[in-house]
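Need residues for this backbone.
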């Protein structure tokens, strides 16, 4: 068999029988409906993440109110809420990805937006804890369309610009997590159910707007038949074994996503214990983390990847992430912890570039499955990461004498995971 031509990153072009990058994308014209489409997808992802963040200040309080103020029971139930949401994302992301490969991206995204909006109305009106829990489960199912949003961007973006566009979607994640808790805190101080109404209104307005502006990105001739083997987590993960490089890049993606859970899991506990910060200072710190991520992913990834290439951008991102995590884990005083934030934000280069390299390996009819598989890996990381980092943190605090690694142990573990990801990236993306 004739060896395939290699692209600018040293990776072979799509294998025979699979549509290559020039055919894999729709008209990338930057004007008209394509620009409106990307703006809609960006806003969709931002609203999904805002809706997750907007509940952070009020959901624990609402759960406790249903339990008569029992904080211990509320903590257990709140953990169950998070686990159920992550599990639904793991199960239904490949389902929505496969459905979008068969029926197109537009109907899946719009139905998901309408579903999320209606579900938030149900949660706002929930008369009992069971109703609230059921609403959280349904929101995990409906918001799994983020994988379809990434597939949409892969459809309409030339391969050399995908890393930048994926970075922009990463900025939407950061923007939602920065703005969401702020809105939730303000609205929740008025009424703990008001944030649910705000999230519902935003989702339904966005769905209505998208009905008029969002074009279909996947032509009928490039769609794949729907099969049960494709529309489940196991079937989606099997796709990653179809090519050695794709499997290697999937390993890089999973380890990186697992490492990401260090700050969401133990960040508040760590900053309170080590520096004695109050809620206001921690809130500013978390906002700074989100803002730095928005700046990097929304403004720097595009020109950075054009300058370095996807492979080198991935390695630079991981190296910066390792340095930032080591600084944050070592930092004996709070201002040194802040020095690590810009470095960990550059970690975003690695995830955007890695996702772009993975999308190069497959044709248009499999982009939905690919993003669904990536979402599965994120779901698995979400099920493992919180328990892993919380246990490491607890063991570090229980160690006699508070010697090295001390309370920074979870950050050092995360840096070690990124080192593993770097080694895998060096071996895979040659």
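Answer:
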């Amino acid at each position: 068999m004739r060896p395939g031509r290699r692209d600018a990153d040293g990776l072979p072009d799509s294998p025979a029988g699979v549509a290559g990058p020039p055919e894999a994308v729709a008209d990338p014209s930057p004007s008209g409906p394509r620009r409106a489409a990307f703006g809609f997808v960006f806003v969709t992802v931002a609203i999904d993440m805002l809706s997750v963040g907007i509940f952070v200040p009020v959901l624990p309080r609402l759960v406790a109110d249903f339990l008569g103020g029992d904080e211990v029971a509320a903590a257990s139930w709140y953990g169950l809420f998070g686990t159920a949401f992550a599990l639904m994302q793991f199960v239904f992301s490949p389902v929505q990805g496969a459905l979008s490969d068969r029926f197109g991206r537009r109907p899946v995204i719009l139905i998901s937006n309408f579903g999320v909006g209606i579900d938030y109305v149900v949660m706002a009106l929930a008369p009992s804890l069971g109703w609230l829990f059921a609403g959280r489960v349904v929101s995990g199912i409906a918001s799994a369309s983020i994988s379809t949003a990434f597939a949409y961007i892969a459809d309409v973006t030339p391969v050399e610009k995908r890393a930048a566009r994926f970075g922009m979607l990463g900025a939407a994640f950061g923007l939602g997590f920065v703005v969401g808790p702020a809105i939730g805190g303000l609205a929740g101080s008025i009424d703990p159910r008001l944030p649910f109404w705000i999230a519902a209104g935003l989702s339904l307005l966005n769905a209505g707007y998208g009905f008029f502006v969002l074009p279909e990105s996947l032509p009928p001739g490039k769609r794949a038949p729907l099969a049960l083997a494709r529309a489940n987590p196991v079937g989606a993960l099997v796709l990653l074994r179809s090519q050695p490089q794709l499997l290697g890049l999937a390993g890089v993606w999973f380890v990186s996503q697992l490492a990401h859970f260090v700050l969401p899991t133990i960040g508040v506990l760590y900053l309170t214990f080590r520096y004695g910060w109050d809620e206001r200072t921690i809130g500013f710190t978390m906002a700074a983390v989100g803002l730095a991520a928005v700046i990097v992913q929304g403004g720097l990834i595009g020109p950075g990847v054009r300058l370095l290439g996807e492979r080198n951008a991935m390695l630079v991102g991981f190296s910066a992430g390792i340095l930032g995590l080591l600084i944050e884990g070592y930092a004996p005083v709070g201002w040194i912890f802040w020095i690590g934030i810009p470095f960990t934000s550059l970690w975003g280069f690695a995830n955007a570039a890695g996702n772009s390299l993975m999308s190069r390996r497959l044709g248009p009819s499999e982009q939905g499955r690919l993003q669904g598989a990536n979402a599965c890996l994120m779901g698995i990381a979400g099920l493992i990461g919180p328990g892993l980092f919380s246990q490491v943190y607890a063991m570090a605090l229980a160690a006699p004498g508070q010697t090295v690694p001390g309370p920074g142990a979870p950050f050092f573990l995360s840096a070690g995971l990124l080192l593993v990801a770097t080694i895998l990236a060096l071996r895979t993306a040659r």
